[in-house]
């Protein structure tokens, strides 16, 4: 890690230190070296957020060479306590075979736990696994439901995935109207879509179908805005659920 990256990491870790541990009898660090030791001691004290960030330190090699195996152990310690971000990182390591043996079933299990806790990103990743039969049985309908939940949670890539599924009829009934709806929504979120795909889909649709797709997309966006406004009015207290 470069000197500039170390400095950036230090400021990041120091800023997080007061939040990482509640009630731990560990002095808040003021130097880079102390920060590393502080996170380790807090992690060893059983604090899940500190365990997660110490795992990040080890995975990224913030203090020396990366140690993916040790990072995975700390992620698991935090994940076992229900820390959502650690569940996501642990699932990714199992999916990639980094620091742990490649185990798609274990990856799906951890994505499932995070998805059950409300993580939109976990739902997106789990949807990919159900769509492709990675570590789980291939269940397209389950993939569609998870992609829809992920899209509602703000994962723009889920919109594009749904567009492709409905356009191709990949395991579900082909639906050009719903495919066009999701294409419009993906484009509205800044996802690059092949113009040829949009044109080809539009060419096989009637004017009424194109209008219906546009209306569905507009209604979806209006409801998404309402959900966002309701969430803001409710006062977000720092839940990890949307991640």
Structure description:
The chain is elongated. It has 243 residues and is mainly alpha-helical. It has twelve helices and no strands. The model is unreliable at 21-26 (pLDDT under 50). Helix 1 packs antiparallel against helix 3 (48-60). It has helices spanning 3-20, 32-44, 48-60, 68-80, 84-96, 104-116, 120-132, 140-152, 156-168, 176-188, 195-203, 207-234.
Q: What is the element layout, followed by pairings?
A:
Layout: H1 3-20, H2 32-44, H3 48-60, H4 68-80, H5 84-96, H6 104-116, H7 120-132, H8 140-152, H9 156-168, H10 176-188, H11 195-203, H12 207-234
The structural class is mainly alpha
> What's the N-to-C terminus distance?
27 Å
Radius of gyration: 21 Å
**Low-confidence sequence ranges:** 21-26
Total helical segments: 12
Q: Using DSSP, what is the number of strands?
A: 0
Measured as a percent range, the helix fraction is over 70%
Binned strand content: under 5%
Order of helices and strands: HHHHHHHHHHHH
Q: Summarize the main sheet.
A: none
Rounded mean pLDDT is: 86
Q: So what's the overall shape?
A: elongated
